[in-house]
Target: DnaJ homolog subfamily B member 12
Amino acid sequence: MVESAAIGNAFAVLTDPVKRKRYDQFGLEAMQTTENYPAHGGRYYYASSFEGDLSAEELFNMFFHGTTYVRRGTQWQRFHTTQTHAHEADTRSTLMQALPLLLIISLSVLSSMFVSDPAYSLTRTSKYYYERRTTNLDVPYFVKENFVRNHGDSLQRIERQVEDEYILTVRTSCFRERNYKENMIWRAKHFKDISLETKARELRTPSCDTLNELYKLYNRH
Model:
């Protein structure tokens, strides 16, 4: 407790301009004197003026709990400014980090409100259940029950979109099939496996066959 009192008095000297001036003029002994005494031209200084400073608990709270002590006359008033500022900073930081996610969610909700469902699907689902075929290339596609009523005026445009999308899908599948077949042939040659090479060359590429048929139909029109 003696050490804590000494630390408290030292802190008081550092934070109180009057006490710091007295310490600079008269040194430590003037602060430790318990009785008043005359010095330097008859002026009196009292040790009691150094009493009533921060306790050990207040010092601990100041250094470890972010508490600030401000002197008002002979009393010390406590403020938790550090924790308050830190809490406000954490709140602002959390909000700033959440803003991009909130923006994405808002845009997604708005886009879903204004974007209507596609007129067709290349695969059958519970929503797109009714099958139709394009006039030129006989490509199958699936629509809703009210398709003709809602899209009858733009039927030709929709069927062109169906055929373009279908050809792109088949072309992509054809590329994958050919790439796989060529890799198998290369591997067989690398290991000099005649049997494996024969099987690789016999691999079918059905998407490429479909694509060739589509090109034939397209050229007829």
